[in-house]
Amino acid sequence: MTFSPATLKALGSYWVAQGGVNLGVVGDTGHISKGVSYHLGKDQLTSTAYSIQTTRDKLGLTEAASAIDLGKLDGSLTLLRQFSQWLVAQGRINAPGTSDIREIIYSPDGAQVLRWDRERGFNSLPKVGEADNTHLTHTHISWYRDAESQDHTTSFRPYFEEGTVALVPGQLIYLEAVIPVVGKPIRTGPHPTSTLIRLSRVDDKFPRIGSDGGWFAVRIPGGAAAYILHTDGKAIPTPHSDDCVDEVKAATDPLNDKITKMKAKTNAFNFDIQDD
User: Residue 256: how many CB atoms within 10 A of its CB?
Assistant: First the structure.
């Protein structure tokens, strides 16, 4: 009988701790009737199931499920979609912790479903038409079965915790000064190259800003101020206007009464931008 391994239980708990909804690991009757999913263990799979065809899956085949379904993040499908796009981008640069991920099925926009498959090459593009529309409202992630005992939270942690995060070419970024001038735009536009940025989620220090929650605290080398870096996780077809003062001010108004406290915490921002 299929069971949820300790590593996926731990990942589910970690996701919930970050404000996410864990939709489950072990497959339901629909999965069982088809007999092909990473949500199933050995006894519930057909001999031709795609989830047991790779060498890694054959070597690691047990009764353990090897997939998880993720629901809304902080009550938002938009935030789930942005996390999913980020995780796919991480997989496509073979970031630490992603080498055990076989596939990610997700929706970037609530209108189409995409599937990224490491078997096509880690830097391959996700494709449409390979999964059903239930994935418009949840994200499915599968791991190679030989990774059953590996820590699956490793690939998630850089998104939620201090660490190094990769920007992808064309990704829209903003740098906003927090101290001493709230909401002053420093740089806006599509990022030209893949860049690793040392950062920390601001959730534990500031209220979340913006509807997408993709804000991070950073320190610019040699700068006297702390900054907030924002990425929208997608490429844009035309240059973005630099004139975003009003919308930034509106988004950052909740910070006004926290400036004094933030000044006291300036030294906590010991992060820098790297061009590794």
Answer: 10
CA distances in angstroms from 179 to 154, 174, 223, 252, 253, listed in the order given: 32, 15, 10, 12, 14
Region 179-208: what's the mean pLDDT?
42
Average model confidence (pLDDT) across the chain = 73
Mode of pairing for the β-strands spanning 171-177 and 127-128: unpaired
Would you say 255 and 262 are in contact if contact means Cβ atoms under 8 Å apart?
yes
Q: Are 242 and 188 in contact (CB under 8 A)?
A: yes
User: Between β-strands 139-143 and 163-167, what pairing exists: parallel, antiparallel or unpaired?
Assistant: unpaired
Structure tokens at 115: 């599937």
171-177 and 226-235 as β-strands: parallel, antiparallel, unpaired?
A: antiparallel
What is this structure's pTM? 0.64
Beta carbons within 10 angstroms of residue 211's beta carbon: 10
Q: What's the token pair of residue 271? A: 């992060």
Structure token pair of residue 151: 């820590």
Cα–Cα dist 124/7, whole Å = 27
- Whether the CB-CB separation of 248 and 183 falls below 8 Å is answered with yes
pLDDT of residue 159: 77
Distance CA(256)–CA(62), nearest Å, equals 55
The 10 Å CB-count burial string (b at 16+, else e) for 118-128 is beeebeeebee
Query: Model confidence over 199-219: pLDDT tens digits?
Result: 444 333 333 333 334 444 444
Instruction: Tell me the HSE value of 178 on the side-chain side, using a 13 A CA sphere.
Output: 32
